[in-house]
Amino acid sequence: MNLSTLLVARASAGRPVRVGLIGAGKFGSMVLAQAQRIEGLHVVAVADLDVGRARASLARVGWPAERYAATSMGDAVKSGRTFVTEDAGALSTCDEIECIIEATGHPIAGIRHALQAIDARKHVVMVNVEADVLCGPLLAERARRQGVVYSMAYGDQPAIICELVDWARSCGFELTSAGKGMNFEPRYRYSTPDTVWGFFGWSEEEVRKGDFNPKMYNSFTDGTKAAIEMAAVANGTGLDCPDDGLAFPPTGLHDLARVFRPVSDGGRLPRSGLVDIAASQEPDGREVFNNIRYGVFVTFKATSEYTKACFKQYGLLTDPSGWYGSMWRPFHMIGLETSVSVLSAVLRNEPTGCSKEFRGDAVATAKRDLKAGEMLDGEGGYAVWANAIPASKSLALGALPIGLAHNVKLKRPVARDRVVSVDDVELTSDLDVVALRRQMEDTTRQATTSKAA
Predict the structure, then answer these.
(1) pTM for the full model?
(2) 183: nearest Cα among 19, 295, 351
């Protein structure tokens, strides 16, 4: 990798890489924390509906006030400072900005922001995995037609998993599975914003001191975020989500190759080629020894007796047979690493992971018995969790994607743990995004029919 060298060359030529950031929450704050330290990377503007919050985020991560005191984007470009605004659309109209980082976490807004940026021929780094799972393959195709890059955000787990998948395939190994670690127990599935901090293990004092959103962290806890991320990995790698959703088998590093291999060879996977989660907790709450809670992994199979022997000779952790091995990265640092995606897009015209097809979906599933007339409150809320299933199954069920499950009314009851269908709800708003999603679904159905013929 030579991104820093390329950046130095650009900076030396007086051509800094100019970026716009939409969303100054936790992820955006982490991006900003490092961006000020990277010579040649200029954050021209930060857009957030709450300008006060954006300024507070800049101050929290150590930006001197004079660095974000630009009076306009034109002033920011000329002075090398940063403009803070509530107008996200304005970032796409700034000719000097080359790349937009979308970090709002709001799927509807994220899709609209991405479309604006792509149509303005700007690269998009989509931190917003919720938006990516909802319509990512269409956004990626639109970006290709416009000659720009649509990319997952490096530092977040989906992009790093995609990197490991690419590594395994580039080495010629037979890829078996890919996934990430996570603190999960079955009872977490029904967590709400009221109970999440107890499950997360943080005190009220720690929560008060941090910039933590209870719905966002509840989506981590109840498995929704895992479903969204694994569906994104499926769409970016050609792997599949399990037919019945993620199984979350408790697994330590030493057992990745043993557990994440097919049942036919003694593992826990129904078959090869799946994504799943290595839980860091046993169902009874005991912590898994040597767990990979903050990391990502792939498992793969040797293609010959010679390769199998090399696995042993070079100390690879394998299953008992010696045929299956694993490779992992123990940590991810989300926004602190996202500049890698920006520089890859601008300097090399390459994404760090990208949705290629609609292969996996994250579908809304009832967290409790829901009654007709109730309002769904989306990811991390009180009403639904997301399950990661194959897109083919989602289409057959007419499932409601989790990205469209916010502020919609149920027309009929849905029992706990049942998938909510599009026919169960009233979709009366955000019809532009609903239409885009249906376009992606129709395109996938047509492609499937053509293959079958």
Answers:
(1) 0.95
(2) 295
The answer to whether residue 448 sits within a structural domain is: yes
E strands along 273-418, which residues? 274-279, 296-301, 324-329, 360-366, 375-377, 384-390, 406-410
The answer on 16 and 61 residing in a single domain is yes
Residues pairing with 154 in the sheet: 156
Same domain, 63 and 171: no
Number of domains in the chain: 3
Q: 76 to each of 32, 81, 433, how far by Cα in Å?
A: 16, 5, 32
**Tens digits of pLDDT across the chain (453 residues):** 699 999 999 999 999 999 999 999 999 999 999 999 999 999 999 999 999 999 999 999 999 999 999 999 999 999 999 999 999 999 999 999 999 999 999 999 999 999 999 999 999 999 999 999 999 999 999 999 999 999 999 999 999 999 999 999 999 999 999 999 999 999 999 999 988 888 877 777 777 777 678 888 899 999 999 999 999 999 999 999 999 999 999 999 999 999 999 999 999 999 999 999 999 999 999 999 999 999 999 999 999 999 999 999 999 999 999 999 999 999 999 999 999 999 999 999 999 999 999 999 999 999 999 999 999 999 999 999 999 999 999 999 999 999 999 999 999 999 999 999 999 999 999 999 999 999 999 999 998 887 776
**348, 374, 407 - which closes a domain:** 348
For residues 299 and 432, state if they share a domain: no
